[in-house]
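Course assignment 3, question 2. Fill in each field.
Student: A.L.
Task: Predict the tertiary structure for the chain below.
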Amino acid sequence: MFEIKLFGIPEIKYNNKKIVFPFKKAEGIFYYLLINKTVTRDELINLFWGDISEDIARKNLRNAIYRIKKELNSSIILSPQKNTLCIDEQIKINSDYNQLFFSNNNILEISDEEFLKGFYIKKSMYFEDWLYEIRENCKRERICKLKAYALKIPNIEEKIEIYERILKLDKLDEVAYSNLIKVYSDDGKYHQAIKCFHNLTDVLNEELGVEPDETIVKFVQKIILNRKKFLNEEKKENTIIGRKREKNVILNQINMFLSHNEYKNILISGEAGIGKTSLFNSILNELTSMEVLCLKSECYKVDKDFYLKAWSNVVEGISKYTLKNNVFIEASLINPLRRIFPSFSLQNRKNDKEENVFVPKKEEFNARIFNNTIEEVLKNILIKITSEKKIIIFFEDIQWMDNQSLSLLIRLVHDLKDKVMLVLTLRNDNSDLHKIKNLFYDENILKSVELKGFSMEETMLFIDKFKKVKSIEKKVKEKIYLESEGNPLFISEYLKMANEKSNFKLINEKIASVLEGRFSELSKNARQIINIMSVFSRDVRFDRLIEISNKSELELLEITQELRNNYLIKDIGTDIVSFIFTHSKLKEYIYDTLNFSFKKIIHRKIGDIIEKDYLNSNLRNDIDTLSDLIFHYKCSNEKLKMLKYKLDYVAYYLDYVHELYPKIKKEKSVVKKLRILDRESVKTEFKEIDGLFKEIEKIYSDELINLENAKYLYIKGRYFIRNGEYEEGKKYIKRQILISNSLEQNENAIKGYKQLIFMTIQRHDINMMRIYLESAMKLEKKCSIKYEKGVLTRLLGLYYLMNGNFKESLISFEKAIKIFREDILNISKYVLNIAACYNYIGEINRREGQYIGADTNYQMAINICVDSNVRRGLEIFYTNLGQVSMETNNIENAYKYFVNATEYFDENGTLWHKSIAVAFLSYIELVKNKNVEASFENLKIAINLSVQLGNPYDIGLVKYIEFIVMERDELICNKCIKELDANLNELEKEAIRYFNEANASFEIERLDRLRVIN
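Answer field:
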């Protein structure tokens, strides 16, 4: 038996043995005979040899017939008459061509491939014409049979597949397009129907330059109207069904809050899909018409390890409200938030300079020094807003809230009771549930609203009200209740299944299957894109999605529109086009279904895209970007890159705190540094980084590891030095210098030496300061970095100043200023260093008793910073200005300057010389304000600070002021003796000893003046 395949690449088998013809024309003759059954010799000669003499042509034909018979080993070709050839009908031949034209076989089983695909005979034009005609006949026959089959079958998915198959055969078939549009419309898939129409329009216009038939156009216009109606109904149906009792409980508490009565904050808890978000949003909608400011934020699992991420949207909402309603917020409050929350917008302020010298009224200034941490800043801003209207803050999924955000939440709700109310949601399958509840219940300020699954009766009501579904029998409703256990999300999904299938049959499957149903309608491209989107940490930027998916912008626009229309994603209203999932469970489900390799690769690709933006743009100071990099490189197991950005992340929080006069980043002002990382947090971060180093040591080369290790040692060493733990810090910095030198990283080695120099300044160790300075300056000459040259020249000036060599000191400071000012292109970066030089020149003036010059130079330092919107360093400059005022007996100005100094000390997190400002405030509180309690509290703070840093000058000054204060007031004297174990007779001697150690014995005479001021 012959098995002959003519669709696609042709293949002939005889008794399962493949037949290969010796030449193309012999093969072509055989195919021609198979199709036409009977032909004449003249017909074949004209078809294959029409361009040569008849004798040669007949000879060639005889040879071809002979070779065919020989290869087939069969008398399949007969010659009933001399000029006639035919196929022997007695021989059994099975071919796909015959199945298409002469059998009742299922058309779906017959290939759509081209007749004799790829078969070609040179210089046989007539054969090519015949081949084209047969191919067109085959296509028409296929289309005709496919259309007939589509009309018979009831299954919608099969119908769609068939019409799509027809359009692959003939992209200009308007009837097929029309039928497909109708199928989509009947199935409620309006988006696909409209998309199909647009495809038809494009094809007709491009190929024929015509528009679709008017009948199709009118039909599609009707679909568009139905779609709008459908979407409006969907919106109406999104209103919450059930939960009336729970909603009333919540609204009752909100009304109590708004009417200034006793109220409780709300915690909505329950399992995933139970309806927390629906109830949450329903409450929000109820409040839109009320005179209350609603702020909303969603917590994500990936943010749990990143500080204050949960507050980003709340702070952004505050920013928008203050801008829209012209609520004036001082720079001292705006700047800290912009440091952590870049979305917080600055307002135009005319009184910026005046703010820098703000003096609180006496009754507003309590004994303790302002502790301007993030909660205090937010509290002050919220107080401003609540003077006009009350605030309700909505937090969703607080089980994913980081500890700092949660701590801030608790403190604010305690401090702002009656001004701010909270509405929170929490998954009750989270291990932190009881801990979080207890934080609130301790003060009895929280009302828990626990959502449970609907009862049978409530489920029936939910089904009836959900949407227009085809009639569902009671037993099916009961089955839905049993399978869903009353979970609204699952009930909704089962109802969608019921609505989409006429012969609805409930399948007993777990949540995975229910959620998978949400994605079953998606095209292949849409499924690929949503898989990628699920790997992003939070929102998905459109430009990044283009890059990672390799789709064109138009393709991706179409795909994301499909995802929107299926209510899987929604837009975020930001300048950069971005999306989020409509429900976090959808994102989690998709992500969990992806295989490990896919997730790992996509995480790495996303990380690489974000890294490219981070390295090539102004995102280097964006903490959100750093946290995203850490997350994606952690998930892709890129441990070295994770370590690199983990170090940058920690350095971000410590940089400004641990650099006294840092270089200013481009287009960034030095703003308030919030002490988010307390000692325990820093310890935790260091422990995690230590673990990462142990892991990567087994994988990467020493050189790569050493680069990151040097960075880590620097961060660690600097941290301990600035906190007064000098020996620990010195140990790390020396190792960092050693590694940097071995890698010929001279600039990094200089940075290490500068930290050791700062340490010697704090300890007043002049000899070691000189040694470290010389080492750093020697390295600077090798690499010739202008900034480092200027800084080291400034530090050399400080070395001479500490030695009492004022002449050389002044020369060095003036030289440093010149170096910084010569670098015109980068001068804005050196603002703080130039200001520091003027400050030190002022210190030379003060020590020489030239108070006018001192005052002028300190003011110069302050003005340079204020004019450049730089707040760093002002704490030192105001302290020195206050000290000059004290020495010239101008206590009013001194008080003003020291108060400003303490604000900036807390704002910038600086400890250096803070004890001086606080000690003088202790004196002024006693002598000028007669506030014994405030004086003693400040004195205790000053003593602790001076001891912590161990600087002999600071210790000497604090001890001498303690001596004067004790001498002047018996009550404070007794307190110091009792609580501080102070000895009046020894204090003066100790102060003199420390001043001598600091080459500052001249201070005794000047401080003695304080003993006689009234």
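Instructor remarks: Confidence is low (pLDDT under 50) at residues 231-238, 346-372, 502-510, 664-676. Residues 558 and 974 are 80 Å apart (CA to CA).
Grade: pending
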